[in-house]
Amino acid sequence: MKKIGLLASLILIGNVLFAQGIKEGKQFLNYERYQSAENVFQKLIAAKPDDEEATYWLGQSYLDPNRVPAPDTAKAKDLYQKFLQANPKSELMMVGMGEVDLIQGNKTDAKNLFETAINNTKKRDLPGILYAVGRANIEPKNGDIMYGIEKLKQATEKDSKNAELYNEIGYGYWKLHDGGNATSNYQTALALDPTDARASFMIGRIYETQGYGQEPVYMRYYMDAMREDPNFAPVYYWLYAYYYQRDVNKAAEYLNKFAATADNDSKLCYLKASLNFVSKKYPETITQADACINGTTQPFPNLYGLKGYAYDKMGDSLKAKESFEKFFSVVNPDNIGPTDYTTYGRILMQFPGSEAEGLSYIDKGLKMDTVVATKVKTITDIAKSFESKNNFAEAGQWYGKILQVDSAYGKTDLFYAGYNDYRGGLYKTADSVFHIYQEKYPSDVYGWYLGARAKEGMDTTYQLGLAKPLYEKVIAIGDTTQNKASIKNFIIPAYRYMVAYFYNIKNKVDSATYFNNKILEVDPADAIALKAKDALASAAKAQAEAADKASKPAAKK
User: DSSP letter at 141?
Assistant: First the structure.
């Protein structure tokens, strides 16, 4: 009896240690320490090859979209298939294979596997299977997120105290851009587990998408995440990235904290190299990136992108293009950011024949970007690029995009959009932009003046008098302006238009003379007006003589 008791105790201790190993591996996954997680699960499987849970989680580490250097779907598929061949009734492996099918685009097969796994599972084990099905549909790009959320909610009905379930539901809503429901579920996870750093971190991420004005709020949640679990590496990485363009010293501080809590892999090597880039040490960036690439058989894909950015800053568009092409060929598409697309697009536009492809990349990046300020910067950079090449029509079109993406646009935005349209010969578009200017800033002479110039472009012979009402508004504003010198460059062209309009179109010399004299009131030395004064006087004299002659009765013969 004592021997049996001892054996039972040893089995119990072994099971407890194995469960602790699973927990440790999952924690490493949560920390995004993929190599550490894989090492734990591989050791567990080596000790117990038929363990379903360890095998499932090893496959999950292979499939994780953020895995360094990249997800390995083939490896996960091989792992799950071999286990299923030996254990065809394993519900957890069915879910794992269903996730692989989803990633590979076999949605019907995946759904069948999920439903079979759920239907074959005993009630007491159902929450775990429902959780796996939820993960399988939320984590990868091609999943049915709402189906995954539905299954996770079913799991909470049977396991309502499991913070892991609410974290995954929150992530699903986050991917659906439903910040309200995402935050609510992350808060539930925190209430169940006050040390749940990922929940605090993700709430911070949600508030950050609302713009810089929310910085005190999202920073508080990031600080909470660090306090709740000092080993939660993702928050240090995120803050490193946050300060990367803002404060290189703070970025270095958080990079050091990340290095202390993360795996020593090629991603960490990339981050260290990137500090050279933000410090504007571009040749050093390339040298260190190459060292990182050559130091491993599986380089972090972003190293190639980093080289592309460095070459772009150095003005070497050919090598920048080559580096970005390599980056796009090896990186997981889910990990390509909006700036990657827009920068590569801008580089492509420097190569004749690649302009259309470049613009398509830029548009893709802009559609992905959720931060208005970065969208505006990207659009402005592209517009300036066209402007520098005197391609004003294209520049105007790009400046005009700012009016669509930024509801807080102002005078400057309207000016650059309208003025470049005008310079590019797009007079109707310029007129539309300046009409907005006039409505938004009715007392600003600039909008009326530029609008009149656009109307002139639409009516070059003045026959329709399209610019006349707008120039009349310029003159009206000028009449109420004390400092006439301040608007000299606007009011003189307005008067000059009136001179031409009344003389050439209406044949009213007196009106033309009136406006010509107004020019000389503003600038007595105006050469054009002085010359016109004599011509108008002669015309008035001729007109008077003709009128006088016409009024006299014809001489009798």
Answer: T
Q: How far is CA 543 from CA 267, 507, 509, 537, in A?
A: 86, 10, 8, 10
Q: Residues 149-203: pLDDT tens digits?
A: 999 999 999 999 999 999 999 999 999 999 999 999 999 999 999 999 999 999 9
- pLDDT classification of 553: cutoffs 50, 70, 90: low
* CB burial readout 409-443, b (16+ within 10 A) else e: beeebbbbbbbbbbbbebbebbbbbbbbbbeeeee
Give the integer Cα–Cα distance in Å for 312 and 89.
54
Q: Mean per-residue pLDDT for 318-344?
A: 94
User: Residue 46 and residue 55: Cα distance in Å, rounded?
Assistant: 10
CATH of 442-544, one of 1.10.8, 2.40.10, 1.25.40, 3.30.420: 1.25.40
- The residue to which tokens 């299977």 are assigned: 129
Which three-class secondary structure string do you get for 9-32? Answer: HHHHHHHHHHHHHHHHHHHHHHCC
Distance spanning both ends of the chain, measured CA to CA = 158
- Please give the Cα distance from 28 to 267 (Å, whole number): 16
Give the span between the Cα atoms of 198 and 321, in whole angstroms.
37
The pTM (predicted TM-score) of the whole model is: 0.69
